[in-house]
Write a structure and sequence with these properties.
The protein is built from 14 helices and two strands. With 394 residues, the chain is mainly α.
Length: 394
C-alpha cells in the first residue's frame, strides 16, 4: 500500500485537526506560560520559576498536575449547567479559529503526497475568524453570571462592554486590508503581498496599530485586563472557578493571544514570507523554511504581549471606553478613506500604496521624535523643581 493511498486529503485533514487540538494546549502550557513567567521575572528583576526541573523548565508540568488534582468547587447557588459550559465556550472557539490560519505553503510528505500547512482555505476566512472569536466572550459573560457572585458578574459585564467597544475598531482596521487585497481568504492575502512585493504593514501602519491594540483589549490582557482586575474584583469573572475549569479559561485566553498574533502576521507581515522576498541581496533568507518564519513572527507578538503585561498599568474603565469610542473608531474610519483614496489614485498599480507607506512611516518617525522630546522636557522640569541642596546631597 503506497503512501498516497494512506495519506488521503481527508486523512491529512484529520491529522492536522488532532495536531491543533493536542499541540496548541501543550505549547501554551509548557512554552508560552514558562516564557512569560521567566521574561516577567527578568523584566521585574526577580528570578521567576526555577525550582521544578532544570532552571524551571518543568514548571508547566507542575502547573498541569496542580490544576488537574485541585478540588473542583461549584457554588451552591450557581447555575450549574451554565457554570460548567462557560469554560468550554471560552476555549473551543479559539481552537476552532486556528483551522483557517495558513502557517505555510504546501509541503511534500512523500513522492506523490503534499499538503498545505493549514486545515482549510475558505473564501471568507477573515470574516469567519472575526465571527468565531467573538463567541469566546460569551464564555466569560456566562461564567460571570452563572457564578452567582457579584465580583464575577461585574467582570462579565465589563467583558461585554469591552467586546462591543473594541470589536468595532478591530473589524474596521481590517477593512483597509480588504481594500488592498479584494479577498477575505487568508491564503490569498499572503499571496497578494507576495505578488505586490509589499507587506501591508507599510501602507497599513495605522490599521495595524488599531488592530493590535484592539486585539490586546479583546484578549483581556494588560493594560486592558478589566474583566479580571484582581485589585478591584478579586479575580473577576473566574473568581468561583478552580481546577480544570479554571485551566480552560486560562487556555482560552492564551489561545486567543496566539490567534490575534497569527492574524497580525498573516495580514500585515506577509505570513510565511521572509522579509523582502524579492530582494536579490536577501535571497539567502529563503533557506529558512516558511513555517519557521511564521512561528518566529508569531513569537515576536507573543513577546510583545508579555512586555505589555510587565510594563503598563491598568486603564480605568472610563478611559477604556473613551479610547475605544472617541479615538480608535474615528481613526479607523478615517484610515479606510485614506487607503481607498490611495488605491483609486493609482488604479492597477501599487504606487499609491507605496506612497502611503512612506507617509505613514514619516508620521511615525515624527511622532516618535516628539514623544522623546516631551520625555526629555518633562525630565528637565522635574530636575529643576528639585531644590539645589537636595540635588547636591543626591
Amino acid at each position: 500500500m503506497t503512501a498516497a493511498k494512506v495519506l488521503t486529503p481527508t486523512v491529512l485533514t484529520y491529522i492536522k485537526v488532532v495536531l491543533i487540538v493536542a499541540v496548541v494546549p501543550a505549547i501554551v502550557g509548557f512554552v508560552v506560560v514558562l516564557a512569560e513567567r521567566r521574561l516577567m521575572g527578568f523584566m521585574q528583576v526577580r528570578l521567576g520559576p526555577n525550582r521544578v526541573g532544570p532552571k524551571g523548565t518543568l514548571q508547566g508540568l507542575a502547573d498541569l498536575v496542580k490544576l488537574v488534582t485541585k478540588e473542583d468547587v461549584t457554588p451552591a447557588r450557581a447555575e450549574k449547567l451554565v457554570h460548567f459550559l462557560a469554560p468550554v465556550l471560552a476555549v473551543i472557539p479559539a481552537l476552532t479559529a486556528l483551522a483557517v490560519i495558513p502557517m505555510g505553503p504546501s509541503v511534500r510528505l512523500a513522492r506523490h503526497v503534499s499538503t498545505p500547512l493549514y486545515v482549510a482555505d475558505i473564501n471568507i476566512g477573515l470574516l469567519f475568524l472575526l465571527a468565531i472569536t467573538s463567541i469566546g466572550v460569551y464564555g466569560i459573560i456566562l461564567g460571570g453570571w452563572a457564578s452567582n457572585n457579584k465580583y464575577s458578574l461585574l467582570g462579565g459585564l465589563r467583558s461585554a462592554a469591552q467586546l462591543v467597544s473594541y470589536e468595532v475598531p478591530m473589524g474596521l482596521s481590517l477593512v483597509a486590508v480588504l481594500l488592498m487585497t479584494r479577498s477575505l481568504s487568508l491564503v490569498e492575502i499572503v499571496q497578494r503581498q507576495d505578488r505586490l512585493h509589499l507587506w501591508f504593514i507599510f501602507p497599513g501602519l495605522l490599521s495595524f496599530f488599531l488592530y493590535f491594540v484592539s486585539g490586546v483589549a479583546e484578549t483581556n490582557r494588560n493594560p486592558f485586563d478589566l474583566p479580571e482586575a484582581e485589585s478591584e474584583l478579586v479575580s473577576g469573572f473566574n473568581t468561583e472557578y478552580s481546577g480544570v475549569k479554571f485551566a480552560f479559561f486560562f487556555l482560552g485566553e492564551y489561545a486567543a493571544m496566539i490567534i490575534i498574533s497569527c492574524v497580525a502576521v498573516t495580514v500585515f507581515f506577509g505570513g510565511w514570507l521572509p522579509p523582502f522576498p524579492h530582494v536579490r541581496a536577501l535571497s539567502f533568507l529563503h533557506f529558512i523554511p516558511p513555517f519557521v518564519w511564521f512561528l518566529g513572527k508569531v513569537g515576536v507578538f507573543l513577546f510583545t504581549y508579555i512586555w505589555f503585561r510587565s510594563t503598563f498599568p491598568r486603564y480605568r474603565f472610563d478611559q477604556l471606553m473613551a479610547l475605544g469610542w472617541k479615538t480608535m473608531i474615528p481613526l479607523a474610519l478615517g484610515n479606510i478613506v485614506v487607503v481607498a483614496v490611495a488605491i483609486l489614485a493609482t488604479p492597477n498599480r501599487t504606487t499609491g500604496l507605496v506612497r502611503l507607506g512612506w507617509i505613514y512611516g514619516a508620521l511615525f518617525v515624527v511622532l516618535f521624535l516628539l514623544a522623546k522630546l516631551r520625555q526629555a522636557l518633562t525630565r528637565r522640569d522635574r530636575l529643576e523643581a528639585v531644590p539645589a541642596s537636595a540635588r547636591r546631597t543626591a
